[in-house]
Amino acid sequence: MAVWFLRGLRRGVITTRYPKAIDSWTASLPTPPAFDARRLTPAVADRLVDVCPSGALIRDYEWLVLDLGACTACGRCIAVSRGVARSSGAFELSTTERGRLIKRIRLRDDVR
Amino acid sequence: MQSLFGRSLHIRTIDTGSCAVCESEIRLLAAPHYDLHRLGFFFTPSPRHADLLLVTGPAVRAFDQAVKKTYLAMPEPKIVVAVGACPLGGVYSEDAFVHGSLEEVLPVDVFIPGCPPSPLALLQGLLVAVGRLAEKVDALSFVDDEAGTGEW
Amino acid sequence: MSREIEASRYRANDGVEYLRVGMAEVEGVVEDMTKAGTRLADLFGSMEDEELVIRLVYGREPEPSYAVVQWPVRGGGYPPLSEVAPAAFVEECEIYEQFGLKCSGAKGLNRLVVPPHAAPDFPRLAHRPGRQAPPPHAPHYVTGEAIEFPVGPVRGVGQESLYMGLVTSGEELIDLYLMVWHKHRGIERRLQQLRPQQALFLVERAEGLSAVGNSWAFCRAVESITDVMVPEAVERTRAVALEFERIYNHAASLAALCQATSLTVGQAQAEVALEELLRLNAAAFGHRYLFGVLAPGGVTRGPDVGVIRERFTMAVDELRRVAAALRSTNSFMDRVEVCGVVSIDDARRLGLVGPVARGSGQDLDTRRDHPYGAYRDCRVEVPVRTAGDCLARMEVILAEVETSAALVTELVQAGLRAGSVDLPPAAGAALGWCESPRGESLVWVSLDREGRIRRARLRPASARNWRAFDDAARSRNVFTDIPIIEASFWLTVAGFAR
Ligand code: SF4
Ligand code: SF4
Fold it and tell me: How many domains does chain C have?
């Protein structure tokens, strides 16, 4: 049993310090999209809405509505956005109000 | 809430149709990398000793009875935490098989997004649930906004 | 018309032979196949032009081919296949539930995914009203003072919902049956009408712990129909993802074995290894459970080869140390030995796959027997044990970790790439397969002229292997062995219930 005992000693070193500090490996977690407002036109928005498998993106006239609760961070919108969407890096999304997970993003006017 | 849960807190889990991955992340909370116990949380197999219910899955309709029974068996005060995109409606839309949203079945106190939420996201959710950590999502912006057109 | 296309196209292409028979010939064909020892891999129904078509899938190992026997059901009923091929029983129940069709002279059929309290309009693949739902479970021939001891469906912390009915006389476990309706999400039904690209999202989530295995089988079926060739370097990327999936699952199974045997320190160490492997998944492929890596036609995310080179061996070494420590822990070895025996005969009779089958002497592995993708160019060693107990299964998975590790090194050496080929619209049907961590995963897909799914049959390895669980549990009659057996099977309820 000595073999287990020695290995047990490492525990203290690997345990996360969260919430005091955030582990660096979390940078590789998939996260919901963030958008570049200057390039987020209605045409682009529709393309993103179309590709989202989770119903997390909805077009509401001049707004793009992102539901962080439904978003599975699948990356499909980012893949088709040609750089308009990127991974937000945000994973601490817990909330007591479902409504706080709904983000409304103003679309850029298509004129010009 | 804070005062009620200053002591150690017992967690029960229930699966309402998950893909088994959220369960895997929950189990890892007790693993050395996360060591849930250091934060005063403990898993309990009995609903009667549970303060907090972690619910995974899209709320399969056929399972309503069992979910409600588990909830009712818990002593007051109790907290319901919806784990992952499934109970938040992001994987299965509402249909004859699933509610697609846990809120149709139970009063949900805390929502933890993700597919799956990583163990750290789960830790954040648990700490938010007991009022030991302020939530962040309100302050987060999901738009790089230079032109000032604005998020709302 | 599309059925004609599929016949002509895939026979040569794919190693799948299609046999169309009439109702009258079915019994004879099944008898011949069974006599020849051909492995029954799946049985499922599908509505085609208002007509129910039933298909049997046979694996013809060691010959690298599958045979699909299909016949249209006319005038109700079909011969009771489970009498000659016991592996067909679960699917006979399924066809009854989903299509309302009973095989002639059927005895008690089990309930699978339709809840006991379901209304008559509970959605099925082809609902035929007016039929009675099967009873909750097959009648148990219990004599004397037997009691039923229910476990679940709500179970321990972080465990999937599952109902186990233990029928016991007090000492002896007479029967064990499972019910999984509380996890049925109707995925096969949901897939209908979707495009393959959209469908993949749900295919991955049918059984998240086999996301790569099941979705690769699905992609292969779709790529067969559309005649798409995936570049070799992309196929290698898929294979690396699949081997990563296998290794982390085997680590998880080991952790569960330690938990079930109350070896807390072993569990902690196995979980350390598991967590390192999951973090490696995320660093290399962008997702801890490898969701979203595969796409029909290719791979969406390229792996970070630098990360794999740097960390892969270290992560596997962590797991190797756990395995070595476990082997020298007598109290642990005593618990897993002679526990949960699946006999060689049962494994063959029930058509088991994966480590459960390989622990019971079945020398089966689709990567070697039906080579696909990058495995065409690799030599895949298939570890086999014959004892059929938890220890044998554990030895198999530990040996598989080594073969997977060797494969990853070889594949990375040969070069990996992301990228995907666009799928041209095409109608037709095809079978896809893949060796998921739990064993052979089969997917049969039929696409209509617009390239939408008419029928997608998912048969994850879990759907196959649960049927040996009661035999294993009864082998020694010790109730406390059941969690150990479950850990060594390492199946999901999600994959079974879909
Ligand atoms: S990441 Fe996926 S789920 Fe989330 S918004 Fe984009 S497409 Fe939708
Ligand atoms: S939220 Fe995602 S990971 Fe969790 S159970 Fe649902 S599909 Fe699986």
Answer: 3
Residues C173 and C221 in one domain: no
Question: What amino acid occupies position C146?
Answer: A
Instruction: Give the residue on A whose Cα is nearest the Cα of C303.
Output: A28
* B95 in contact with A, Cβ within 8 Å: no
- Residue A26 identity (one-letter amino acid): T
Identify whether residues C357 and C452 lie together within a single domain: yes
Q: What is the CATH number of the domain that holds C85?
A: 3.30.460.80
> CB distance from C64 to chain A under 8 Å?
no
Nearest atom, ligand 2, residue B114 CA? 1
Burial class (CB in 10 A: 0-12, 13-18, 19+), B21: buried
Domain ranges within chain B, ordered by starting residue: 2-139
- B63 lies within 8 A of chain A by CB: no
Of ligand 1's listed atoms, the one at least distance from the Cα of A66 is: 5
Domain housing C169: 147-183
pLDDT tens digits along B9-51: 999 999 999 999 999 999 999 998 898 888 889 998 887 888 9
Domain end call among C99, C118, C138: C99
pLDDT band at C144 (very low <50, low <70, confident <90, very high): low
The CATH number of B2-139 is: 3.40.50.12280
Predicted TM-score (pTM) above 0.95 = no
Phi, psi of C297 (to 5 degrees): 95, -5
Place of tokens 């295919």: C203
C290 and C167 within one domain: no
Nearest chain A residue (CA) to B117: A91
CB of C205 shorter than 6 A to ligand 2: yes
Ligand nearest to the CA of A70: 1
C3-12: long-range pairs with CB below 8 Å, 24+? C3/C48, C3/C429, C5/C427, C5/C428, C6/C225, C6/C428, C6/C429, C6/C430, C9/C227, C9/C428, C10/C224, C10/C430, C10/C431
Residues of B with Cβ-Cβ distance to C181 under 8 angstroms: 62
CB pairs under 8 A between A and B: 158
How far from the centroid of its chain's Cα atoms is residue C312's Cα?
26
Q: Domain ends where: C159, C183, C207?
A: C183
